[in-house]
Design brief:
CATH architecture of chain A: 3-Layer(aba) Sandwich
Structural class of chain A: alpha/beta
Distance between the termini of chain B: 53 Å
Distance between the termini of chain A: 46 Å
CATH architecture of the largest domain in chain B: Orthogonal Bundle
Radius of gyration of chain A: 18 Å
CATH superfamily of the largest domain in chain B: MetI-like
Strand order of the largest sheet of chain B: 2-1-3
Order of helices and strands of chain B: HEHHHHHEHHEHHHHHHHHHH
Number of domains of chain B: 2
CATH superfamily of chain A: P-loop containing nucleotide triphosphate hydrolases
Number of strands of chain A: 10
Structural class of chain B: mainly alpha
Radius of gyration of chain B: 31 Å
Largest interface: A-B, 27 and 22 residues
CATH class of the largest domain in chain B: Mainly Alpha
Shape of chain B: extended
Strand order of the largest sheet of chain A: 6-7-8-3-9-10
Number of helices of chain B: 18
Order of helices and strands of chain A: HEEEHEEHEHHHHEHEHEEHH
Oligomer: heterodimer
Helix content of chain A: 40-55%
Number of helices of chain A: 11
Helix content of chain B: 55-70%
């Protein structure tokens, strides 16, 4: 049943991609409002996220950048009081359509969280969990292959090759975060959402992850929420600036950082707000 | 002028004094509660330790075929009806041939427990070939003799005020010299059910009764409690209705246990006509009683699982049920089990609800299943404490020692489980 819906999405997703093969928009948001109870967190936001690029969402604390990120894989569903309206599409499909299986959606759109959250299990089990529940591996060897290649893609394999069966929580902060990236990759998603993945890491571990993201965008679309403008400037091709629930400005990263159109963007970039 | 003083001032001295006072107050409180605990353990042990020994008398018994099996067929049914009293009496009489009057003889025969015949009968039943031979056998002495051997009879008292008369004491002393009377380990205490005779009574029936009740209690309360907690904590939306349920669960945890006993009496016995005085009903009542405790403990431990774990699994595309049963419940399990074991320990010591459903009856047989009539450890303690025979005093304390041992073991097991299963993140 779960497998079936994944296949369906895969098949349908393949069609629009074949119509417009290069640099199409894989995610789009149209007039999205998000409410927490009576409080509106996002005010009618619309933008498109291009495929195989890194899109950065920046803005001061509480601006709604994490909230909008969590709309794309419907993680907001887990919050009882959260209500999302508007139109959010993944490869042309409305993800809030009642026919959409949220389990299949999250297999297509993976997520890496602010705080590294490996399961208190072995490194191998952490990465193997996703393929296992989605039935992606047809044998034990195949599963091992998926785990190892995912760890390699996350640049972690060489560091943990001899202790795959030790606890994932025993790794350093940066390694844990890369383990979480490997875990997301193992399900073979199209999009990876990253919610401030480097906020609790030192500069060296941050640099490692930034290099990793650079390499990953060949295969995946990455949407990253970051509170570091330098990070957004370094790694992203597109940047969206949020302030108080509004999408103030969205465009090429270079343009946003060199010649912002709006005053609020200008003020944030120069450090006057946030 | 800035102040550079580092030495103490009057104000600081007062603060230090307050700290010292508080520290001593705390020490005193700890000492006091420890003192009570030690006193309790000491007084119970001092009184109960004697019950683990039982006086026995060695007799040279001629298993006379003419008395026990006049037909010579060795028919088991015949043997079961055989009267062993004459052969035992004869052996006793042989030891003290000078005892002539009938009245004196009867007193002599009362040195042995009335249960001695059963021990001998059991021996013969297992090995009928013994008939016709002469055997040296240790048989249990009566409770009065036992008390005397344990030094609990005041010999300086006038003879009329004692239950053990001077001639009996003379016989016992004679046996002592002959080394034919001895205190041995009281195996009967751990292998027999209740009895009206202190020297024959054991705690096995109550132990099995308690065990079976707890088994029923666990197999109902644990799954129901955990499922309730998982549903309320992970699935149910927070509405006014779930709030109401939560308040009621907390209230139920505080309801006196005897009320649950009355509920069990009217529902399980009154409506469903389940068998009275059985571990089945006892376990059901105890399950009702421990359910709120288990639910509260399970919910607390589910809540202590960090939300990041749920997000990690959901973000990978795990369904809600997969998230909960692959990750959340295993992580909460140590806490749930600890709470459950502590709840069960509470149930083990519970008496009042069992009185209501008739587990207070005098039951000699050791229960074989959950539908056999039974008592439980705390009820057995209550029954013995209520008995007038002096021999039951030490047995009551000994039963308390057994109960406390089980409680301590269960609590240690809970601590062990928590240490063993708890994961770090």
């Amino acid at each position: 049943m779960v497998m079936g819906s994944i296949m369906k999405i895969q098949k349908e997703a393949a069609q629009p991609a074949s119509i417009s093969p290069t640099r199409s928009d894989i995610l789009s948001a149209q007039n999205v409002d998000v409410f927490y109870g009576n409080k509106q967190a996002i005010n009618s936001v619309s933008f498109e996220i291009p495929e195989h690029q890194i899109t950065a969402l920046i803005g001061p604390s509480g601006c709604g950048k994490s909230t909008i990120l969590r709309c794309f894989n419907r993680m907001n569903d887990t919050i009882d009081i959260c209500k999302v309206t508007g139109d959010i599409r993944f490869a042309g499909h409305n993800i809030y359509d009642p026919k959409v299986d949220v389990v299949a959606l999250r297999a297509r759109i993976g997520m890496v969280f602010q705080k590294a959250n490996p399961f208190p299990k072995s490194i191998f089990e952490n990465v193997a969990y996703g393929p296992r529940i989605h039935g992606l591996a047809n044998s034990k060897d195949h599963l091992e292959e998926i785990v190892i290649s995912s760890l390699k893609k996350a640049g972690l394999y060489s560091e943990v090759a001899d202790r795959l069966h030790e606890s994932g929580t025993g790794l350093s902060g940066g390694q844990q975060q890369r383990l979480c990236i490997a875990r997301a990759i193992a399900v073979d998603p199209q999009v990876i959402l990253m919610d401030e993945p480097c906020s609790s890491l030192d500069p060296i571990a941050t640099a490692v992850i930034e290099d990793l993201m650079e390499a990953m965008k060949e295969k995946y679309t990455i949407v990253i929420v970051t509170h570091s403008m330098q990070q957004a400037a370094r790694i992203s091709q597109k940047t969206a600036f949020f302030h108080l629930g509004d999408l103030v400005e969205f465009g090429d990263t270079e343009a946003i950082f060199t010649s912002p159109i709006h005053e609020r963007t200008q003020n944030y970039i120069s450090g006057r707000i946030g | 002028m800035p102040d550079y003083t580092l030495t103490t001032s009057e104000h600081l001295t007062r603060r230090h004094a307050a700290e010292t006072r508080f520290r001593w107050g705390g020490r005193l409180a700890v000492l006091l509660s420890l003192g009570f605990l030690v006193f309790m353990f000491f007084s119970i042990s001092a009184r109960g330790i004697g019950a683990f020994g039982q006086t026995q008398i060695q007799l040279e018994i001629h298993l006379d075929e003419a008395v026990l099996d006049p037909t010579g067929q060795r028919d088991p049914q015949q043997l079961a009806r055989a009267n062993f009293k004459p052969v035992i009496n004869q052996a006793l009489f042989k030891l003290f041939p000078k005892v002539q009057t009938r009245r004196e003889q009867r007193t002599l025969y009362q040195l042995l427990s009335s249960g001695a015949v059963f021990d001998l009968a059991e021996m013969v039943e297992q090995n009928p070939d013994l008939i016709g031979s002469t055997q040296r056998v240790w048989l249990p002495a009566s409770a009065e003799v036992d008390l005397f051997m344990k030094g609990k009879v005041d010999v300086s008292l006038e003879e009329e005020l004692r239950r053990l008369k001077n001639n009996e004491i003379a016989w016992i002393n004679h046996l002592k010299v002959q080394r034919q009377i001895q205190k041995k380990f009281n195996t009967a205490f751990f292998t027999k059910g209740d009895s009206r005779e202190p020297e024959l009574s054991g705690i096995l029936g109550a132990m099995i009764g308690s065990f079976l009740s707890l088994l029923v209690c666990f197999s109902i309360a644990f799954p129901v409690g955990v499922l309730t907690a998982v549903y309320l904590e992970e699935f149910a939306r927070k509405t006014r209705f779930t709030d109401l349920i939560e308040i009621n669960i907390n209230n139920l945890a505080a309801v006196p246990s005897i009320v649950f006993g009355l509920l069990g009496l009217s529902i399980f016995l009154g409506v469903f006509h389940m068998p009275r005085s059985t571990p089945l009903v006892g376990g059901l009542v105890l399950a009702l009683m421990t359910l709120p405790t288990i639910i509260i403990a399970a919910r607390a431990s589910l809540r202590s699982v960090p939300n990041t774990i749920r997000e990690a699994a959901l973000g990978l595309g795990a369904s809600k049920v997969q998230t909960i049963f692959h990750h959340v419940v295993p992580l909460a399990m140590p806490g749930m089990l600890t709470g459950t074991i502590l709840g069960m320990a509470g149930a083990l010591g519970e008496t009042a609800p069992l009185l209501m459903i008739g587990m207070v009856a005098f039951i000699v047989d050791v229960p074989q299943g959950i539908t056999d009539v039974a008592t439980s450890l705390p009820v057995q303690i209550f029954l013995w404490a209520d008995s007038p025979e002096k021999g039951f005093v030490e047995r009551t304390s000994a039963a308390i020692m057994v109960l406390l041992t089980f409680l301590v073991l269960m609590n240690l097991f809970a601590v062990f489980l928590r240490r063993k299963l708890e994961k770090q993140w």
